[in-house]
Amino acid sequence: MQSPAKITKPCHDPPAMKALGLRARAALLDLISALVTGRGVAPGDRAAVRGSLALDGFRKAARGYLVRRLLRPGSREDDVTLLAPALDGLFTIAVSSADLAVGEEILRSGRYEPHIVAFYRRHLRPGMTVLDVGANVGFHALHAAALVGPSGRVFAVEPDPRNVALLRLSLALPGAPAPVEVIEAALSDADGMLVLSDLGNRANSGARFTHRDRQTLERLVHGPDPRFTTARGLRWDGMQLDTRIDLVKIDIEGSEPRAVRGMARSLERHRPTVLSEFAPSNLGDLGGIEPDAYVTWFLERGYTSSVLEEGTGALVAAGGAEIAARLGTRHHLDLVFSPT
Fold first, then answer.
1. Domain that holds residue 59
2. What is the pLDDT of residue 77?
3. Tell me, what CATH number does 287's domain have?
4. How confident is the model at residue 202 (pLDDT cuts 50, 70, 90)?
5. Radius of gyration for the chain, computed over Cα atoms and rounded to the nearest angstrom
6. d(Cα 65, Cα 83) in Å, to the nearest integer?
7. Considering only 74-83, 147-156, 299-308, which range has the smallest mean pLDDT?
8. How far is the CA of 89 from the CAs of 10, 11, 70, 110, 270, in angstroms?
9. Which DSSP string do the residues of 155-217 spell out, in sequence order?
C-alpha cells in the first residue's frame, strides 16, 4: 500500500493563486497529479481540466480531478488509502481510493448521508452512548464520538476487515474523536461464525451481506467477482447487556431483524432510540422476515415509527401504509423507532 495522501477540502483560491495564469495553474496541477497519483494530467483530460480551473478555481478543480483520477477502477492506485477531512474539519477519516460509494462521497463532499448527520446533530448530546451496527469505515461513528465527547461512548461494530483497518487508522490519527470501541464482528441473534460476502462489488464498501448459509448468499450475490469469507457473529445481549445505550444506528443490508433480536433485552432495559435502514427486499431475502413484521416488532415493544427524510432530514411519523408510500420505488429508506 502506498503512503496515505491527504486531499484537503475545497475553498476559495488565495489572491496569489488567482494571479497565476491558466497555463501556469494547469502546469501546477499536472505536477501535483504526478506527485499524488504517479502520473500527470492525462492528455484526454487536459481540456476539461482547463475549463474546470477557469470556472471553479484551482483548489476545487484540483481536488475534483485528483479524486476522480484516484478512484478510476483498474488503475494502479486501487489500493491507496486517502485521508479526508470530514464535516468541515470536525474529524479526519481514512478511506480507500477503490471505494466508489462511501469513500467517493466523503472525498468529494466531506460528508456522507447528510440526513443522518442532521439527525445526529439534533439527537446526540455529551455523555451519551451510541451503538453503530454496520459501522463501515466509521464516518457516523466518528461523528457520534465528536458529539458525545470524552464523557460518552461509541461502539462501532463492523465485520469487514478492510473497513475495520481503515477505521482503526482514523482513530490513530492525531485529534481523532474519542472514545470509539471497535468490535470486528457482525451482530446477530446467536453467537457463531457467519459467511460474509462483498456481493462481487469490491468497489462498494457500503454493501456487505452476512448469513449462516453460504448457498443463500450465492443465490443473492450477482456481482462479477464475489468473495466469500467468514465473520464472527455475536449477540449483543450476551456481552453488553448492562451497558446503557442511548442510540442504536443499524444498517446491515437486511440482517437487522437478527441483530435486534440479539439485543432485545438491552432495548427493553435501556430504551434507546433506534435508527434503522429499511430495505424490504433485503429484509425478506436475508432477514427472513416480512417488512411489515420488522416494523411491528418495534411497535409491540412500545416504540413509535417515523421516516427520516433523505432530502430534508426531517422526521415524519409513519406507520406501515405511510412507510410503504414514502418508500415508493426506492430500494430503502431510514426509519427511526422512538421509545414511548
1. 9-70
2. 42
3. 3.40.50.150
4. low
5. 21
6. 16
7. 74-83
8. 11, 12, 21, 8, 33
9. EEE---HHHHHHHHHHHHSTT--S-EEEE-SEE-SS-EEEEEE-TT-TT-TT--EEES-HHHH
Residue 295, C-alpha cell as written in the block: 416494523
58 in a structural domain: yes
Domain match, 32 and 132 both:
no
Is residue 200 situated within a structural domain? yes
Q: Are 123 and 247 in contact (CB under 8 A)?
A: yes
Asked whether 5 and 67 are in contact (CB, 8 A), the reply is: no
Assigned C-alpha cell, 140? 457516523
- Is residue 106 located within the same domain as residue 64? no
All three cell numbers of 279, joined, read 430495505
For residues 13 and 149, state if they share a domain: no
Q: Which of 64, 97, 94 has the alpha carbon at shortest distance from 78? A: 97
Q: What secondary structure letter does DSSP report for 44?
A: G
Domain count across the chain = 2
pLDDT tens string 275-292: 999 999 999 999 999 999
Domain boundary among 52, 70, 88: 70
Phi-psi region of 135 (alpha: psi -120 to 50; beta: other; left: phi over 0): alpha
- What the block records as the C-alpha cell of 99 is 471505494
Q: Which helix H or strand E contains 143, and what residues bound it?
A: helix 139-148
Q: How far apart are CA 338 and CA 306, in angstroms?
A: 8
Residue 65 and residue 205 in one domain: no
Q: Is the model more confident about 134 or about 1? A: 134
Residues 4/94, Cβ–Cβ less than 8 Å: yes
d(CA 89, CA 295): 37
Per the structure block, which three cell numbers stand in for 94? 481514512
Answer yes or no: are the C-beta atoms of 187 and 259 closer than 8 Å. Answer: yes
